[in-house]
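re the bet — no i am not wrong, look at it urself. input seq straight from the record:
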Amino acid sequence: MRHWRSRRTSSYIYFGGVSGGGCCPDGVPKWGVSAKVRPEPCLLALRKTLGLYANICLANLASGSLLCYSPLHPEIANGVDMIIVRDLIRGAYFGAQKITCAAVQIALAANPPLEIHSIDNVNVLASSRLWRKVVTETLTKEYPQLKLHHHHLHSAAMVMVSKPSKLNGVILTEKLFGDMLASFSSICFFGWSPRTTFKQL
Protein backbone atom coordinates (compact mmCIF):
# COMPACT_ATOMS: atom_id res chain seq x y z
CA MET A 1 0.00 0.00 0.00
CA ARG A 2 2.86 2.38 0.75
CA HIS A 3 4.27 1.90 -2.76
CA TRP A 4 0.82 2.37 -4.29
CA ARG A 5 0.29 5.66 -2.45
CA SER A 6 3.70 6.91 -3.57
CA ARG A 7 2.77 6.21 -7.19
CA ARG A 8 -0.34 8.31 -6.85
CA THR A 9 1.69 11.34 -5.73
CA SER A 10 4.63 10.89 -8.11
CA SER A 11 5.18 13.03 -11.20
CA TYR A 12 6.55 10.12 -13.23
CA ILE A 13 6.30 6.34 -13.04
CA TYR A 14 8.68 4.02 -14.87
CA PHE A 15 7.07 0.69 -15.67
CA GLY A 16 8.77 -2.24 -17.40
CA GLY A 17 7.20 -4.60 -19.93
CA VAL A 18 4.77 -7.26 -18.72
CA SER A 19 4.95 -9.75 -21.57
CA GLY A 20 6.89 -13.00 -21.48
CA GLY A 21 7.40 -14.52 -18.06
CA GLY A 22 9.17 -17.71 -19.11
CA CYS A 23 7.92 -21.19 -18.26
CA CYS A 24 7.27 -23.17 -15.10
CA PRO A 25 9.28 -26.36 -14.41
CA ASP A 26 6.60 -28.42 -16.17
CA GLY A 27 7.07 -26.38 -19.35
CA VAL A 28 3.76 -24.54 -19.07
CA PRO A 29 4.06 -20.80 -19.79
CA LYS A 30 4.17 -18.87 -16.52
CA TRP A 31 1.55 -16.39 -17.72
CA GLY A 32 -0.45 -18.62 -20.06
CA VAL A 33 -4.17 -18.24 -20.67
CA SER A 34 -5.01 -20.48 -17.70
CA ALA A 35 -2.64 -18.78 -15.23
CA LYS A 36 -4.28 -17.78 -11.95
CA VAL A 37 -1.97 -14.80 -11.46
CA ARG A 38 -1.14 -12.45 -14.32
CA PRO A 39 0.74 -9.12 -14.44
CA GLU A 40 -1.76 -7.20 -16.54
CA PRO A 41 -4.20 -6.32 -13.71
CA CYS A 42 -1.51 -4.17 -12.10
CA LEU A 43 -0.93 -2.26 -15.33
CA LEU A 44 -4.64 -1.80 -15.95
CA ALA A 45 -5.20 -0.67 -12.36
CA LEU A 46 -2.43 1.93 -12.73
CA ARG A 47 -4.04 3.34 -15.86
CA LYS A 48 -7.52 3.47 -14.40
CA THR A 49 -6.60 4.81 -10.95
CA LEU A 50 -4.26 7.50 -12.28
CA GLY A 51 -6.39 8.38 -15.29
CA LEU A 52 -3.59 7.64 -17.76
CA TYR A 53 -5.46 7.75 -21.05
CA ALA A 54 -3.06 8.93 -23.79
CA ASN A 55 -0.32 6.58 -24.95
CA ILE A 56 2.41 8.00 -27.20
CA CYS A 57 4.82 5.93 -29.29
CA LEU A 58 7.46 7.36 -31.61
CA ALA A 59 8.22 5.50 -34.84
CA ASN A 60 11.29 6.73 -36.67
CA LEU A 61 14.90 5.93 -37.40
CA ALA A 62 17.08 7.89 -35.02
CA SER A 63 19.98 7.67 -37.45
CA GLY A 64 20.42 6.94 -41.13
CA SER A 65 22.99 4.33 -40.16
CA LEU A 66 20.10 2.15 -38.92
CA LEU A 67 18.47 1.91 -42.35
CA CYS A 68 20.36 -1.26 -43.22
CA TYR A 69 18.92 -3.01 -40.16
CA SER A 70 15.28 -2.40 -41.06
CA PRO A 71 13.48 -5.35 -42.70
CA LEU A 72 12.24 -2.83 -45.26
CA HIS A 73 14.35 -1.63 -48.17
CA PRO A 74 16.34 1.48 -47.17
CA GLU A 75 14.59 3.66 -49.76
CA ILE A 76 11.22 2.68 -48.24
CA ALA A 77 12.15 3.13 -44.58
CA ASN A 78 14.08 6.36 -45.10
CA GLY A 79 12.36 9.51 -43.86
CA VAL A 80 9.73 7.83 -41.69
CA ASP A 81 8.63 10.00 -38.76
CA MET A 82 5.39 9.00 -37.05
CA ILE A 83 3.90 9.67 -33.63
CA ILE A 84 1.30 7.07 -32.71
CA VAL A 85 -1.32 8.37 -30.26
CA ARG A 86 -3.84 5.92 -28.84
CA ASP A 87 -6.55 5.93 -26.22
CA LEU A 88 -5.95 3.53 -23.34
CA ILE A 89 -8.90 3.44 -20.99
CA ARG A 90 -12.08 4.89 -22.47
CA GLY A 91 -12.50 3.07 -25.78
CA ALA A 92 -13.99 4.29 -29.04
CA TYR A 93 -17.40 5.08 -27.56
CA PHE A 94 -16.20 7.34 -24.74
CA GLY A 95 -12.63 8.35 -25.52
CA ALA A 96 -12.63 9.51 -29.14
CA GLN A 97 -12.95 13.23 -28.52
CA LYS A 98 -10.48 13.37 -25.63
CA ILE A 99 -7.75 11.41 -27.42
CA THR A 100 -8.37 13.47 -30.58
CA CYS A 101 -7.67 16.64 -28.61
CA ALA A 102 -4.46 15.07 -27.30
CA ALA A 103 -3.35 14.28 -30.85
CA VAL A 104 -4.20 17.84 -31.88
CA GLN A 105 -1.94 19.26 -29.18
CA ILE A 106 0.96 17.18 -30.47
CA ALA A 107 0.25 18.16 -34.07
CA LEU A 108 0.07 21.87 -33.26
CA ALA A 109 3.32 21.76 -31.27
CA ALA A 110 5.23 21.29 -34.54
CA ASN A 111 5.99 24.03 -37.04
CA PRO A 112 4.42 23.57 -39.51
CA PRO A 113 1.66 21.54 -37.79
CA LEU A 114 1.72 17.81 -38.39
CA GLU A 115 -0.92 16.02 -40.39
CA ILE A 116 -3.28 13.71 -38.50
CA HIS A 117 -4.02 10.19 -39.74
CA SER A 118 -7.04 8.62 -38.05
CA ILE A 119 -7.13 4.82 -38.15
CA ASP A 120 -10.37 2.87 -37.83
CA ASN A 121 -12.24 -0.13 -39.18
CA VAL A 122 -15.32 1.75 -40.29
CA ASN A 123 -16.46 -0.82 -42.84
CA VAL A 124 -16.94 -3.48 -40.13
CA LEU A 125 -17.33 -1.94 -36.66
CA ALA A 126 -20.11 0.34 -35.49
CA SER A 127 -17.73 1.77 -32.90
CA SER A 128 -15.39 2.79 -35.72
CA ARG A 129 -18.19 4.61 -37.49
CA LEU A 130 -18.78 6.62 -34.32
CA TRP A 131 -15.01 7.13 -33.97
CA ARG A 132 -14.75 8.58 -37.47
CA LYS A 133 -17.75 10.85 -36.92
CA VAL A 134 -16.36 12.27 -33.66
CA VAL A 135 -12.83 12.73 -35.03
CA THR A 136 -14.11 14.43 -38.18
CA GLU A 137 -16.42 16.79 -36.29
CA THR A 138 -13.76 17.70 -33.74
CA LEU A 139 -11.12 18.49 -36.36
CA THR A 140 -13.32 20.30 -38.89
CA LYS A 141 -15.16 22.45 -36.36
CA GLU A 142 -12.41 23.24 -33.85
CA TYR A 143 -9.13 22.81 -35.76
CA PRO A 144 -9.83 23.38 -39.47
CA GLN A 145 -6.19 24.37 -40.04
CA LEU A 146 -5.06 20.78 -39.52
CA LYS A 147 -5.02 18.23 -42.33
CA LEU A 148 -6.99 15.08 -41.49
CA HIS A 149 -6.78 11.75 -43.32
CA HIS A 150 -8.89 8.66 -42.60
CA HIS A 151 -7.48 5.16 -43.12
CA HIS A 152 -8.84 1.68 -42.64
CA LEU A 153 -6.64 -0.38 -40.32
CA HIS A 154 -5.72 -2.91 -42.99
CA SER A 155 -4.80 -0.34 -45.62
CA ALA A 156 -2.76 1.60 -43.05
CA ALA A 157 -0.80 -1.57 -42.27
CA MET A 158 -0.14 -2.05 -45.99
CA VAL A 159 1.00 1.56 -46.38
CA MET A 160 3.31 1.12 -43.39
CA VAL A 161 5.34 -1.48 -45.27
CA SER A 162 5.04 -0.08 -48.79
CA LYS A 163 5.12 3.74 -48.51
CA PRO A 164 5.33 4.44 -44.76
CA SER A 165 6.29 8.11 -45.11
CA LYS A 166 2.71 8.70 -46.32
CA LEU A 167 1.73 8.23 -42.68
CA ASN A 168 4.23 10.76 -41.36
CA GLY A 169 2.67 12.96 -38.72
CA VAL A 170 0.33 11.94 -35.92
CA ILE A 171 -1.41 8.57 -36.14
CA LEU A 172 -4.59 8.74 -34.07
CA THR A 173 -6.45 5.59 -33.08
CA GLU A 174 -8.04 3.57 -30.31
CA LYS A 175 -6.28 1.14 -27.99
CA LEU A 176 -6.23 -2.15 -29.90
CA PHE A 177 -5.45 -0.71 -33.34
CA GLY A 178 -2.78 1.55 -31.86
CA ASP A 179 -1.14 -1.33 -30.03
CA MET A 180 -0.99 -3.35 -33.25
CA LEU A 181 0.47 -0.51 -35.31
CA ALA A 182 2.96 0.50 -32.60
CA SER A 183 4.25 -3.07 -32.31
CA PHE A 184 4.39 -3.31 -36.09
CA SER A 185 6.32 -0.07 -36.39
CA SER A 186 8.82 -1.17 -33.75
CA ILE A 187 9.86 -4.00 -36.07
CA CYS A 188 10.00 -1.88 -39.21
CA PHE A 189 11.41 1.39 -37.89
CA PHE A 190 12.94 0.60 -34.51
CA GLY A 191 10.24 2.40 -32.57
CA TRP A 192 11.65 0.75 -29.49
CA SER A 193 11.86 3.83 -27.32
CA PRO A 194 9.67 3.36 -24.24
CA ARG A 195 6.06 4.31 -24.79
CA THR A 196 4.84 7.24 -22.75
CA THR A 197 1.43 7.48 -21.14
CA PHE A 198 -0.11 10.75 -19.99
CA LYS A 199 -2.91 11.87 -17.74
CA GLN A 200 -2.92 15.21 -19.50
CA LEU A 201 -0.78 16.85 -22.18
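see?? The first helix runs from residue 2 to 9. told u. also The chain has a mean pLDDT of 82. so pay up
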